[in-house]
Amino acid sequence: MRRYILLASLALIFCASCQRDAGTAERASAKSAASPTATVVAPENAATQPVLHWECDGGMALTTKYLPRDHAISLGLHEGERKLPQVASASGEKYQDGPITFWSKGGEAIYERTPAPPIDCRLASG
Q1: Higher confidence at residue 48 or residue 55?
Q2: Which residues contact 109 (CB under 8 A, 6 or more apart)?
Q3: Within 10 A of 4 (CB to CB), how many other CB atoms are there?
Q4: According to the model, what pLDDT value does residue 43 have?
Q5: Can you give the residue range of the structural domain that contains 25?
Q6: Are residues 70 and 116 in the same domain?
Q7: Is residue 17 a part of any domain in this protein?
Q8: Is the pLDDT of residue 56 over 70?
């Protein structure tokens, strides 16, 4: 009889420990989901191509230069240069300063100056 009581007690202690660990894991998971951490990384082509030339719809041409110390780009527009800090992005690299956003992934990009509609861009060949 004592053996059954001892085994039942050990089982209860084990189950209580499992539930406590599961609760801790659930709280940690909920905390990470509630406050995601954004990681800003350098673009893949930053080291190999310091200045990129973009051809955009409507005949617009842009240039981008990665600024590694600032985690930003210098965006060359027809009216001059504008520094855009890098912001968190689910995919690709996204840079934004006020109403201007430049979001690139691979050889494609979107330039947006609100309230105007977004403009599609592609890396210029050659």
Answers
A1: 55
A2: 54, 62, 102, 103, 120, 121, 122, 123
A3: 8
A4: 54
A5: 1-37
A6: yes
A7: yes
A8: yes
- Is the per-residue pLDDT at 15 higher than 50? no
30 located within any domain: yes
Residue 48 — φ and ψ, nearest 5°? -85, -30
Give the CA radius of gyration of the chain: 26
Question: The tokens of 117 are what?
Answer: 């509609």
- Residue 56, strand partner residues: 121
Under a CB-based contact definition with an 8 Å cutoff, are residues 64 and 51 in contact? yes
What kind and span of H or E run contains 100? strand 100-105
Tell me what the pLDDT averaged over the chain comes to.
Answer: 75
Instruction: Using pLDDT thresholds of 50, 70 and 90, give the confidence band for residue 27.
Output: very low
Q: Give the start-end residues of each E strand in 4-71.
A: 51-56, 61-67
Token pair for 8: 């039942």
Q: Which residue reads 């780009």 in tokens?
A: 73
In angstroms, rounded to a whole number, what is the distance separating the alpha carbons of residues 22 and 29? Answer: 10
Question: Collapsing DSSP states into helix, strand and coil, what is residue 120?
Answer: strand
Cβ–Cβ under 8 Å, residues 64 and 77: no
